[in-house]
Amino acid sequence: MQTPSLEEPKATKLSRSQQTVFEVFVVLGVMLLVKDVADRFNAIGAGSIAMWCGIFVASYFMSKKGVSWKDRGLTLPVGAKSWLKSVGLALLTVVAVLLFMGLVMPLMSELLGVHIPESATDRFEFFLGQPMVFFIYLIVVIWIGAAVGEELLMRGFLLNSLIELFGDHKKAVTAAVLLHAVVFGMLHISQGVPGIIGTGGVAVVFAVVYLLNGKKLFPLIIAHGLINSISITAYYLSDGNIT
Predict the structure, then answer these.
(1) Which of 28, 120, 124, 135 has its CA 20 to 30 A from that of 170?
(2) Is 34:49 a contact under the CB 8 Å cutoff?
(3) How sure is the predictor about 2, in pLDDT bands with cuts at 50, 70 and 90?
(4) What is the domain count for the chain?
């Protein structure tokens, strides 16, 4: 009669932390690959296309865990009080970001001796003097692509994945916020060092608002859309002189 083996079975599945790292790398990898291909074809809104491809992959991984975007904060406010709070928080976030970009970033750029390259805005020249094209770009790329897409992927998926990986205590959450900000900043490398630092700083602000507000994405989507709309509209109305 054979005695049962006391050896533990070999692990055939990734650990929870390994699975999280794998998912993050796959999602970001898909996004960067799509962005590269889209850029090669000079696709309008290449970043937004890449972002939504990453969202589709992230949705698959989340569904395998029984997690929905609603669980990550994609819900509408309920009731007048909740709407007022959300819109008010969005407007405060807009003010904070505009002050940061308008006051802190110019000083930092001068201290570091770096500036956003002129080529960073070249991709927007196609809609100058074309109001209908500009309006479509504003809705599709700025609001759907960037405001909704980046908040879903950066805050909804990436930040939560890093918190899940590092742990849900103060130091770990801080590390997750900073790392996710580095990733977000590096996605704007075409804007040079100021763009990386600026968008990284914005990511920190958005992450703090997201976490302190019970992980609700709606105020951030509104804030993100308004900030981008203000900057792109200024560029359009100035015929490309204000960047």
Answers:
(1) 28
(2) yes
(3) low
(4) 1
